[in-house]
């Protein structure tokens, strides 16, 4: 910059909409945070370990985005309360959009999965959503507007072997989100449920298998091997398609409840509804080589 050029003035974000995302250190949350920041929103890209947000903070500084990366652990009441209080203090009580994205992918046969492993899956994927949503709803109701978005899964619509715990969490979110939508609409708060199919994220890289299902002696070892074969051959879409859907669901005036998107979305969201159980079970048994002795 030459000496006679005026200094660059910081952008005024005081009237910009505000979004809080959970699980924004990577994958869907990271990509969505970048998209909303680029659109001029005030973005609170929360994550359990804020040190993982350094690249995001650097990009925000370079691009002049209004973006912060507060610590927020969806499994901890104190952490959630502190992060939400800090946001609302900084925005004078404004929060336009909550994106419940934090979660992980548990893997393993139902018998191999311990009660603690199932409890941990539900604590993050279901109770974590409940905890964060409860923390922000009073502010949304006070303003008479807001939108709560839940990142569910097509696994909340269909069932496959070796994914019982994960599917239990996503099926639970289906019912919980629909009930919430009825309850908060009179207060001007909209609720939407995104149902992604397989996308190119770190979800499967960071999956947490049930310890017993990793053992060669597990009676379900052949099933797990067939699952890995199916997973390795699955087509995964690139993230922009999903982020486009999230942006649209966040901004359309009257959003519908469910937003299936990505590979297998048509089969899971529509064909499964009209397929008899025997036909679906036959197809799954064939794909996973499940045979009676």
Keywords summarizing the entry:
293 residues; two-stranded parallel sheet; seven-stranded parallel beta sheet; disordered N terminus; 9 strands; globular; 13% strand; Rossmann fold; 9 helices; alpha/beta
What do these coordinates show?
The protein has 293 residues and is an alpha/beta fold. It has one domain: 3-Layer(aba) Sandwich (Rossmann fold), CATH 3.40.50.720. Helices cover 45% and strands 13% of the residues. It has nine helices and nine strands. The chain has helices spanning 27-38, 54-63, 77-90, 115-143, 164-184, 221-232, 239-251, 265-274, 277-288, and strands spanning 18-21, 42-45, 66-68, 97-100, 106-107, 146-151, 189-196, 208-209, 258-261. The strands form two sheets. It has a seven-stranded parallel sheet with strand order 3-2-1-4-6-7-9, with helices on both faces. β6 (146-151), α5 and β7 (189-196) form a beta-alpha-beta unit. α3 runs parallel beside α4. Mean pLDDT is 91; it is low at 1-8.
SSE order and pairing:
Layout: E1 18-21, H1 27-38, E2 42-45, H2 54-63, E3 66-68, H3 77-90, E4 97-100, E5 106-107, H4 115-143, E6 146-151, H5 164-184, E7 189-196, E8 208-209, H6 221-232, H7 239-251, E9 258-261, H8 265-274, H9 277-288
Parallel strand pairs: 1-2, 1-4, 2-3, 4-6, 5-8, 6-7, 7-9
Helix pairs in contact: 1-7, 3-4, 4-5
